[in-house]
Amino acid sequence: MEYTSFKKRFLTLPFLLLFLSLPSFPKIKKDKIIVISDKERLYNQLHLLEVGLTQVIFDKAVAGWNVLSTQKLLTNSRILSIVDFSQSSNTKRLYVIDMDKKILLMNTYVAHGRNSGGEFATNFGNKENSFKSSLGFYITGKTYQGNHGLSMRLRGIEKGINDQAEQRGIVIHGAPYVSEKLIKQCGRLGRSQGCPAVPEELCQQIISYIKEGSCFYMYYPDENYLMNTLIG
Prior knowledge:
Layout: H1 2-21, H2 36-45, H3 55-70, E1 79-84, E2 94-98, E3 103-108, E4 136-146, E5 149-156, H4 165-168, E6 171-175, H5 180-186, E7 198-199, H6 200-210, E8 215-219, H7 223-228
Parallel strand pairs: 1-8, 6-7
Antiparallel strand pairs: 1-2, 2-3, 4-5, 4-8, 5-6
C-alpha cells in the first residue's frame, strides 16, 4: 500500500512540474467597443424607439463610433451625436448620447441645408456654395464666436462625402429659424446654408456636451453614401 501511494506521487510529480512551467498570459484589456448584443441592450435602455430613432440607424452610428474610438481619433469618446435626416424636419431628429453613462442627454430639432430639401432632406453634397447638408461621420472641433454667436467647428472625415466641411464653413450654431414657432408658421423648420443648426436656446448646452473631439453622425439612406462609406 505504501508502494502504491509512492508510485502515484512519483507519476504525478512530472505533470505538476510541467503545469508550473507553463507561461502565464497577461490579462486582456477590454477596449471601448460595443458588440452586437450590447447595441440592442443599449438601444432599449435609452428608449430610442420611443423618440423616433430606429435601431438600424443607431447600430450604424455605434459601428462608426467604435471604429473612431479604437483608432484613437476621439478625444471626447464619451459622446455620440446622431442626426437622422430620414425624419421630417418637424421632428426632433438630433440625439446626443452619453455612451459611458448610457443616457440620452439631448433630443431636439436640427436644420438641414436649403438645397437639401423642404420639410425632408433628400439631396446632399460636399461642394462649396452648394448649400446642401453632407452626410457621414464628423469629429467635433473647437468653439468660437461667429455671426450666430457661440459656434463649433466640424471636421468631416469621409473623403468625397463630407471632407470639404471645414472649407465650406459647416459648423454647429444656433438659429432663430430652428423653432416650433416657425414650424407652426411655415409648416416646416427653417433651413441653413448646409450647417446642422440647432435651437438658439439649446445651442450652448449642446456644444458643451459635444465639443472637442466627439463623434457626430449625419444619416440618410442615400445609396451613394451607403455604398461608398468606409465607416459604420
